[in-house]
Amino acid sequence: MTTSTSVAPKESVPVQTLMPRFAYNKSQLNERLQKQLKDAELKFVTAGSHSINALENGGVLDLVQTAIDIGAQVGKLNVRDIFYGRKTIRGEAISKFNHFSTTIRQILDEPIKNHCDAATCDMWTDDYMKRSYLDFTVFWTNDKYKLSHCLLRCKHFPEDSKTGINIWQEIKSIFESFNLSFGDTPIVTDQGSNMVAAFNITEEARIPCMAHRCNTTLETAWNRVDTKNSTFAVFNLTIT
């Protein structure tokens, strides 16, 4: 006795025909498509108040490429139907951050026990928005003396909160979040008065940054020469 089974044919998934490689060059698009692309990029900048540099941002290009790849596999879609939006992505970012924090804590556990970790901390201001940030990076070595590092925090600091006590409170929370040892984690900083004051609160092992010291020394020396030698001053102005 023989039995037969019928298998329903699979539905064909619409797949966009891949364009020849030369067509990926925008100069090979016809005039209508070129204008459509230019208008869309211009609208992105003007209507969204984005920097024109955002058009060349790697993250934006990767996002667009991902959408193109998905469209090539499943056919034409309305992007508004598939984008997750700010609430979902915010949750995804928090989830990944929590996973990252857990992973880094596990990685740092052994170096901390072996006293093979150190850190750098800096307060800086971005050139465009003039906002101040505090960043904290940890460095560690393993039993094969491989040096690794990881940025643990980069936080906006309003101008009126850049006091020694506020800086220390933020650093303290980083220590507690990643189980760093108080008094046993050397930290390199510049000679900013608020940064020095922050680490003096609990007398942490703070080491002055040699790069900052060299820069200050050279800047001071050159400024003195500038006042005495006009040619040297013009030279410095030209190269800076």
From TrEMBL:
For this entry, list what GO says about its biological process: regulation of transcription by RNA polymerase II
Q: Which SUPFAM superfamilies match?
A: Hermes dimerisation domain (SSF140996), Ribonuclease H-like (SSF53098)
Q: Look up the domain of life of the source.
A: Eukaryota
List the GO terms this entry assigns under cellular component, sorted alphabetically: nucleus
Q: Which InterPro entries match?
A: RNaseH-like_sf (IPR012337), Vacuolar_transposase_reg (IPR052717)
Name of the protein: Transposase
Lineage of producing organism: Eukaryota, Metazoa, Spiralia, Gnathifera, Rotifera
